[in-house]
Design a protein that fits this description.
7-stranded mixed sheet, homodimer, globular, Quinone Oxidoreductase, Chain A, domain 1, 26% strand, 331 residues, 2 domains, 10 helices, Rossmann fold, 6-stranded parallel sheet, alpha/beta
């Protein structure tokens, strides 16, 4: 066992695009588990677009990470030492271990069933999948036959959302950046159609693909794409605001959706949510998602980077769209 | 009985602020009621901000008024001749008679109970009151104890909405333009507080008056006021989009609410509605509103202009904020 721990601390609140210098790599002594604690060796870190929001001191759904604190993040690790009943050395666990090679944990850690692929535990079967599931079904009140549009459709959450909608009998159009992601959506993930926002006129394509309007929009992006969709919502549409990656690295909030007023004539709604509120019902989602994954009827991708020292650079990939599928870092 | 009818036709689709020249005054022959029709002499015209939207050919909840057609509008009139069972000369009726001195009507006309004040029939006890009632209670899911903010609060719909919220046990803050309207809100209409957007810092005042956030926002205005409210919504807030008078005379849709993304962290929603969807339940609203009016516990104002030739100028008053209370024209 190494004698020291490496940790990425939040060094500065980012201004504009998140930079490597917003973090500081520190070497610190190995932590010692106290009573009721386990010592975990971090194996995989997971990255979410929302992490940019955790780095700044603005009103949000959780307090920001403090300057000088270990960067918050979901991870999968291996229990090395345990003073906690029910956890033994060798157990694989997932939880908010943070950006550090060694972490202390408690009963909030989730034990992974034997043989679980850690990449799946951090994506389809983790918070990502649960977000897609409840966002669509509960917030979006998805109904069979709905015309569903998903932005950030090749991303971890969007791709699961689209596949859930297909399984629920909907027509699904994904919006993603680049031909490769778009082909994957239609050829592998079973989307009915995909729009390449980097090379196509999103509005014109939406009009063509959704001539009777859009019933459910699952939005991970915001910005002009949100406006193009709002211009084409159907009567009674549900616009589920899951994220807005186009805004996260902007210092001043960009202009909002100028077409928001379409929700009046269309008796529609825009609704935001945070997955935390659905954790008590996570088992529901996990059961269905696990079944689909076991059947092989949900496809997924992970973008796996390597090396603890690359954590900040791995986070940046989310905001440039460099990743394809769930952004992970293997330690 | 005069031999001719005067009608205001839509002459041109307005560009920017609605102008008198967008209408044309025409003298035409008196209409003759056919079988199942009544001839009605128009006595009062009612004006709604939404009428600007009926004049342009853009997607909306009803088709636009055609060029050369009589301008659409709610009115109260008196039956002069009847070929329709249940309607007799002398009956007072309300309905979409349009901007004309004489109109033909059918069973869609509502007979007013004996002694009904036509100003009330066209405001608190008409579509205006029904809009406020269902917008707040159904769309806004109003609960006792909610902190409610209303924009356009001294307007016909806003003032009724605020008074309904007070009767349902809420704390109510109104936003209106000018000291006179604000005093009326607090001194006469029973609002807990009023913000004069023309002379006060709306954001600062909202922070002061709603330190724990805003549970329900009933928005008639849009624009910067919507943003100031979104910045201060409480967890689970309902933002009811009833109107957006700040936008109606703009040729290009102005930027949308840059703070829309607050609905995510606050698990809130923005929802639009059209009163038409609630007409089947109008009696529910009317019963409660009639009771409150009879008790004298709902106060209301009407801005009464006179003379049929002034219809276009009367409509303009809504967009300059010249009116105080329901905008009416007495013929």
């Amino acid at each position: 066992m190494s004698e020291t721990n490496r940790q990425w601390l939040l060094h500065a609140r980012p201004v504009g695009m998140v930079k490597e210098s917003d973090f500081e790599l520190r070497t610190s002594p190995m932590p010692k588990p106290g009573d009721g604690q386990v010592l975990v060796r971090t194996r995989w870190l997971a990255f979410e677009p929302a992490m940019r929001g955790w780095m700044v001191d603005r009103p949000n759904y959780i307090p920001p990470v403090g300057i000088g604190e270990v960067m918050r993040g979901m991870a999968v690790g291996e229990v090395v030492e345990s003073n906690l009943d029910g956890y033994a050395p060798g157990d694989r666990v997932s939880g908010m271990l943070g950006w550090q090679e060694w972490a202390l944990g408690d009963g909030a850690l989730r034990k992974l069933p034997e043989g679980t692929d850690p990449r799946l535990a951090l994506s389809v079967l983790g918070l990502t999948g649960i977000t897609a599931y409840f966002g669509l079904l509960e917030v979006g009140q998805l109904k069979e036959g709905d015309v569903v549009v998903i932005s950030g459709a090749a991303g971890a959450t969007g791709s699961v959302a689209g596949q859930i909608a297909k399984r629920k009998g909907c027509r699904v159009v994904g919006i993603a950046g680049g031909a490769e992601k778009c082909s994957w959506l239609t050829d592998k993930a079973g989307f009915d159609a995909a729009i390449d926002y980097k090379n196509e006129d999103v509005g014109a394509r939406l009009s063509e693909l959704c001539p009777d309007g859009i019933d459910v929009f699952f939005d991970n992006v915001g910005g002009p794409i949100l406006d193009e969709v709002l211009a084409r919502i159907a009567r009674g549409a549900r616009v589920v605001i899951c994220g807005a990656i186009s805004r996260y690295n902007e210092e001043e909030a960009p202009p909002g959706p100028r077409n928001y007023y379409r929700i009046v004539a269309q008796r529609a709604r825009m609704e935001g949510f945070v997955v935390i509120d659905f954790l008590a019902r996570a088992a529901e989602a996990a059961a269905e998602l696990t079944k689909w994954v076991a059947e092989g009827s949900i496809v997924w991708e992970a973008d796996v980077q390597k090396g603890f020292e690359n954590a900040p650079r791995t986070l940046q990939r989310l905001y440039t769209g460099a990743n394809f599928g769930k952004q992970l870092l293997e330690l």
